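Issue 218. Parser rejects a valid record. Input:
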Amino acid sequence: MFKRLFGRGSRGAMPRDTDADWEEIGRSNPYYGVLTDPRFKTENLNDKVRADFFATGEGDIRWASELLTRRYPDFSPASALDFGCGVGRLTRALAAATGDAFGVDISEAMLAEARRSALPGTAFGCELPDRTFDWIVSIIVFQHIPPERGYLLLRALMERLAPGGFVTLQFALYRDPRHSSVPGGRIVMDGDFTMVSNVAALRELAKGEMVMFDYDLTVIAAILFAAGVTDLELSHTDHGGFHGAFIHGRKAA
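Output the parser choked on:
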């Protein structure tokens, strides 16, 4: 479904072919494309660096698990969906936590790398599986997807969340004025939000560039509420002036 509904066949009106960007990144710099730390550039990779890379995923999933356990003492998911899995940074940790983790990504090159280091309990594909999961996770992913696609994908993900299931999601929401020239977002200045329309700049970027897109929290909440995910906790994120939120929550049983 990922490619059928949101891939090459539906890009006609899109200002940016982000799928092609991520396929290029997946071929040239798959680990750095997931975490933009120079250590993870292809020319610097070795077994120790790869181990450090996957350890960051273990830390992120441990943090999310602890947060959800504090809020929901019965938190004990038996399956997980990692949306925008890349090379499997989180998928591996989710498999260790649940025993059944599926990673989905638009980049075939990323998926090929993920499969090369796959652990028991993991599976990968470019389509959203036709099944439900107890925990749906997506971290530092939606910010690289144009919102008009991202909202549709979020709805599709919520259709795969089991009753009583949990979500850990992260979205970019706005940026400081110093980032006003960066395509794809909106800025806040003196407390007022100003839309930034940089369609031309998006089209002019070289292939393989990472683009940041900001989302509307009202639309996100409406999608989650409609899916029965009405018990939510938000926490602020700030990545160098790009502001957003982690959303943790649970679907009604």
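Fixed in the parser; the record now loads. The chain has nine helices and nine strands.
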